[in-house]
## 1
Amino acid sequence: MKRAAVGLVLLAGLAAAAGSALLAWQRGLQDATPPSAAPVSLERGAYLVAVGNCAGCHTARGGARLAGGRPIPTPFGIAFSPNLTPDATGLAGWRADDFWRALHFGQGRDGRLLLPAHPITNTSLVSREDADALHAWLQAQAPVAAPRREHQLRGLYGSQLAIAAWRALYFRPGVYRPDPARDAAWNRGAYLSQGLAHCSACHAGRDALGGDQGAADFRGGLLAGLGWVAPSLHDPAEAGVQRWTPEALQRWLRDGQAEGHSALGPMAEVVLGSTAALDAADRAAMGAYLRALPEQAVARPEPAEPSPRRRERGAGLYREHCAACHGEHGEGRHDDGGAPAYPALAGSRIVTQASAANLLRVIERGGFAPATPGHPRPYGMPPFAGVLAPEDLAALASHLRQSFGHQAGEIDAVEVLRLRAAAH
Ligand code: HEC
Ligand code: HEC
Ligand code: HEC
């Protein structure tokens, strides 16, 4: 008995020692990277804030730009973004070194370890010169008072020890090292996509702890709390762009729309908030990098038992609710001037992706492609969430996945409900 108690005390002591070692290690990550010698340009800072879409997370709906307070869903609950304006409740008094430490090492000014809800794996790759320009621009904005909102994370997930453990597994401060085998455009595209533009924050494949394989992991995965899948950028049947022309891809990055592909849901926000701001050279560079990503097919999950009755019901629903816009055979429709108005569903990747999540989200929520200067007045689609029951959605999705030459797996109402649960 006594010996067991002594053992327990020893064990607890060991765990505490390991815990404080872990914390000390993660908090101790620091270096003496000096501020960049280049003169800081506010114009450059404004451009980088846009490309990094800092406002996408650091602005609450209806709130002042960059004043924080937006809920960010994570696998462990809700994190709230802090205020980045130079107010006492935000970054007042932050020196360039403090800011660099936050982006590069993921540490607050007081050494507090930042949650990976801020894309630390990605912002760690941002160069000191770019970090200094971001800092200078942010410090030059009008201060807005907006106190920090407490994160709502389950259990101990928000504790510094849990964050230190997570970081020990998945985070290493990085520096973008150019690949000498590639040209300057590819390297510039890699630097932007892996770093500031944080594409892997959504497109990485994630394990049960929300960990990924680094900033160049684009294997795709379900976005916690949103119910959308960010599909794999390595698979041309998912979101890969390896087979697009450079021109179509650059148009898509700028306008959110090109040759029948439109950016939808969270990706529409990324285009509007980030890639639309890229200058022509950076857009071409990002395009070159994305087109050269190694191809790898994703695993397709076991489909539901095929059911002719389900598909027949789906065909009826399609004729009733969808064909007027998308065409009897999913061929889409043009407007009177001959410009594409309603996208073709025949050949649409949203319809045939391994996961039916995005197809269901589009049908349930409807939507608009982002309105951008190159595509100013997109046509809209009404939401069908209140109109179609889970059985109907499964039937319709199964019909679409098996028609117009498609051969994707059917889905049933159980899958519809499972994917709907992932949206909350
Ligand atoms: C995906 C959402 C997301 C994006 C994109 C994002 N952030 Fe964050 N950021 C957060 C969250 C959430 C936190 C709070 C983390 C915490 O409290 O542990 C945070 C924390 C920070 C902090 C620490 C502030 C403090 O008070 O400790 C800084 C600085 C910061 N972000 C700057 C930026 C900049 C600059 C960009 C654009 C390059 C950016 N963030 C993009 C979500 C995001
Ligand atoms: C906030 C999460 C998020 C971020 C960040 C994000 N994506 Fe996406 N992306 C998505 C989702 C969700 C989809 C699926 C919806 C769609 O097809 O538009 C998607 C789809 C795509 C597609 C397929 C488009 C099509 O029409 O077939 C491409 C290409 C893409 N993303 C590239 C990128 C690049 C490049 C970046 C970084 C600049 C990026 N994404 C950042 C969520 C994200
Ligand atoms: C009033 C016309 C209209 C109706 C009715 C309609 N849609 Fe749409 N649909 C659109 C428009 C416009 C878009 C493009 C919107 C966007 O890009 O966000 C679209 C986009 C889509 C997409 C994404 C295609 C892609 O590749 O980007 C799918 C899938 C889709 N609709 C399925 C359906 C289904 C299934 C129905 C019937 C339940 C339906 N739609 C009814 C107008 C309509």
Note: The chain has a mean pLDDT of 92.
## 2
Amino acid sequence: MSRELFREVSRRDFLKICGGVAAALGLSEMSASEVAEVLAASAKKPPVVWLEFGSCSGCSTSFLNADSPNAVDVILNHLSVRYIEVIMAAQGAQTEEVLHETIEKEAGNYIAVIEGAVPTLDGYGMIADRNFYDVLKEVAAKAKAVIALGSCAAYGGIPAAKPNPGQVKPVSEIIGKEKVINIPGCAANPSWLISTVVHVLMFGMPELDSFGRPKFIYGQCIHDNCERRASFDEGMYVEKYGDTEVGRDYCLVKVGCKGPNTHSNCPQIRWNGSKSWCVAVGAGCIGCVEPSFPDAFMPFHDRLPDLALPGWAGIRADADLIGTVLGAATAIGIGVHAVGAAAKGKLGKRAAHEEQAKTEA
Ligand code: SF4
Ligand code: SF4
């Protein structure tokens, strides 16, 4: 089996990609060429083992569908991807041979990427006649770092949703938290994986929040960086899907947006080659990166609890305080906020929209 699965990219594209990686890492002082130098200097490509457990393969698809040229090409040209079940050509005993050879010969050197959650009951998920949890323990034991990619691997996600007959658990509950980096998302954004791998290669383990997520990705609340935030502040809300207000950047909180409880850089990094993201297309955020997703965020199109405003600013600023359970801690105060904004004469955007509507009529 060929161990070089991906093509080379041009120097120009390489620098462009390194610029994107530097931006994703928040390395304002580090130029793209410096990132490129560090990556190019790694003469020996770090080996990667990518395991697929209980999932829909959406994170693989997200990663492999990223636009080209992009960071995916660069990273894969600087890594030696030894084992990746969803696309490797080899089958059966041949793949097992590659896996075990990598574990033994690259002990302490390889990065394990785990996609999917782990059933803890025998027979609910197996590779080569071995339960997922045994395979995970073996691979993780000698890995340099373990990346739990996607909400299923990081927190259990949809496979662990009620009633969870296979008693599915996240990766960190099987092998401990010590060398696990959670990259949640349903699916995970390719740039999250890429920038995390670059961080591990360049600087070691990134700083994590209390949910095991890199702070440089998940350290900010979506609501604080949302392009519809001005509408929220001015009390301009979409009341139901299909309204023209969806396309006029009105806030989606009343139709279920969970942005105020969700922490990631989606508004800045965006999706599909940085072209758009959930809120921009009028879908609202469903909180897919949070530990309590999906159970605590359903129904997806019901609005967050409409509670009092006091204390809200302090809660939303700290990702570590949010995520286990929605409820009383979610204090948005939509009605109060709208009234307050009106009283302060802050409804300039609303007035502009009303004026525009009159003109159009
Ligand atoms: S509630 Fe959602 S749509 Fe409204 S400002 Fe916050 S993140 Fe944006
Ligand atoms: S905007 Fe929300 S639902 Fe969409 S990818 Fe980001 S965290 Fe997930």
Note: The domain at 222-360 is CATH 4.10.480.10 (Cytochrome-c3 Hydrogenase; Chain A, domain 2).
